[in-house]
## 1
Amino acid sequence: MLKMRTLITLALFFSFSLANGQNLEMTDIRRDFKIGHKDKDLCQRYLKELEEHANSSVERGYEAAYHMFMANHTGNPFKKMSYFKSGRKMLEEAIQSDQNSVELRYIRLCIQYYIPSYLGYKGNVEEDKRYLTENLYKLRDDSVKDLIYNYLKGAKMYSDEELKLLGR
């Protein structure tokens, strides 16, 4: 009887450990979002993790972003466009499923603000800037709110007046 309890306890422990090992470490993924387009190894690692484990709309949004970042890490022009187009579609689907997500709007704003205009994906910059100005302060997770605010402040996307509203 004691052996059976021990075996059950061990089985539960290992099941719990394996389940926890599949959770995404969103803190790192969020923090490194600003350099994903520059660092191929980091981009590939996060993309693989997100492809395997992304469940929420925000996780799928970051998966889409890292997918688009992969366009910077290939020399093949067809692969570049493929990565970009599929990532764009994924991001728009994530936003469609969760239109009130501050974080998804932040992801799209950052991508649209910085990509070349010939890609034709700049149509939501002003809308997303306005949305973030009106809603960032409502975000419940202070660490995510601070991360977004500090990035946007340093990115010079907002005027000083807009930053005051954004940072309230």
## 2
Amino acid sequence: MGVNVILDILGSLIIASILMLSIFRASNSSTEDLYRGSGNLVAQTNLATVVMILETDLRRVGYCADWQQIPVPTEAILYADSCSIRYLTDVDNNGIIDTMFYYIDYQTDIPETPNPRDRFLYRVVNNEAPVGVNLGITKFNLEYFNALGTELSFPIADPREIYTMQIDLTVEDVAAYDEKYQTIFWRQIRMASRNLYNR
């Protein structure tokens, strides 16, 4: 009878261990799904915010409420490369020309977030001090095309040739579960300001 009791106790311990392990795995999986879901939601929200601002600003290249301030809209783009663009626009819709400059700093890490790949995207109006926005952006890439749809190669010698542009944007959540970051990619193909059509 003593052997049976010991076997029953050992069997109970084994079954209890298996059950506890299953519960722990289910709990861990549930926690991971929760963090991934919330990280994905945050990344999508951040992406939507950045896209809305970028599209609004870049569609206004060469725009001014007083059109005589920018009589030749094709000369509105002052500088363009793969990760930055500087152009003339009217930010406040007040008839006064502003200079808008977008760029990303791939060299400087953001120490406030655990994600080693996220970077500041800078939006600079006129000569204001650059203020970086961190919404988990890991890639900001621009490509430019002429009126015939041919991609312009870098460095772009004459920004007046730019007719449309392609924007690639990648956003990750700034914090992750078990170092697994949710990644969302967005691409705007052949976006153009209506003012660039005035040739």
## 3
Amino acid sequence: MKFLDEAKIYLESGKGGPGCVAFRREKYIDMGGPDGGNGGRGGHVYLEVVDNLNTLIDFRYTQHFRAGPGMHGSGANRTGKDGKDITVKVPVGTVVLDEDKETELFDLVTPGERILLLKGGDGGFGNAHYKSSTNRAPRKATPGWPGEERAVWLRLKLIADAGIVGLPNAGKSTFLSVVSRAKPKIADYPFTTLAPNLGVVRSHENEFVLADIPGLIEGAHEGHGLGTRFLGHVERTRVLLHLIDATADDIVADYKTIRAELKAYGHGLAKKPEIIVLNKIDALGPELAEDQQKILSKAIRKKVHIISAVSREGVDKVLEELWTHIAKGRAKDKAALALTAANEVVFEE
């Protein structure tokens, strides 16, 4: 299935049905009075979060969604049938943006969550509604109210525990393919990965989700190389795995390039825990690999791992450190959830 993480859709709720002008007419009952019913309400438009979707590709082929109109009222004070509601299903992690593509309306991260986006128009009144002591036979009825129309952008941000960042050709997809059953495209040239990939990683008895995004370039925070969309997929992660090509000419500059993009992008990416890894040490040999490790560690004053994703050398230690950060994040989220639940109970009492 092709991955699509952004789509524009057009939504319209149903218009209300018109009211009815009618009078009761039965044998032996003269001037039975008005009995025209009201029109039915137009259909609502809902958004629903489902966990069996992981792309917005369906919205490439279907962009327009329209709820049903309300039916007109009829005699004998019969109200028209309400219009059919419509539910647009989106993946977990979908952000709903206004048409300006900047104003965030909803952030949908809970499976089963259902929100009312557009309300259907109310039905019009039949003539029975206008009966009064001074107007015993009104011939007035109103049309239904129009529905609402709106265009919104859907932007998918993947839900993952950890995310891999780095320059093109740093070996991110190879790492993901080695530690999980994901099968991303792998080749010996930059920009092989054109869409994010997810993989479930098992480290000892622990499992977590790892996201691999396409390689970033300088200016990614401004959209160069579609960087803003790719960076959005690691916003929700608890820890970042920063992969650097150990065979590069200037590993320090490569590291600083990615860090600058994370900081410029914002949204807390630069403040996330970071595990720094020099990859492809199999191409250097043990001594040269250690020299590269010392150079980078001294320049940035942080711990640096050295691994070979191809041979799995050093990979297990990196996975263990990833899990340490993920476990802390999960425990923190669990404690926050328990505190919220406790506060809600106290408030209800």
